[in-house]
Amino acid sequence: MTELTRVVPDKGIRQVYNGTGGTLLQGTFVKLKTAPTYKNEIEAATGNTDAYYGVLTADLATASYGDCQIEGVALVLGAEAVAVGVRVMPGAAGAGFTCTAGNSVVGIAVTLGAAATLFEVELAKGSARMPG
What we know:
- By secondary structure, this protein is mainly beta.
- It is built from no helices and 10 strands.
């Protein structure tokens, strides 16, 4: 298999702030906080029905600003084995899972995913729901 790559369209990165109290890992799906203290303050998208914002491009320490990819092909941290071509959803700690009925679709797996490893996901625009 070839090396993983990100494809970031022009204007596909946003600066975000981590005020969670802990480091968020590269490849974590994040959502905007509903009651932020700082502009573009994020937290892990931990529910499979969360409206995700994007994917962190690098580890982001608490009380720090960093980059969040909102479109294109992103490197996503896997939570389990994910097959190529399946819909992906955020799960525990913002990691990527195979999407199941009624949950948020955040993209399509472009490469194989596995627990605690990065894999490529073509990000979806907005949060759609898996039929079912």
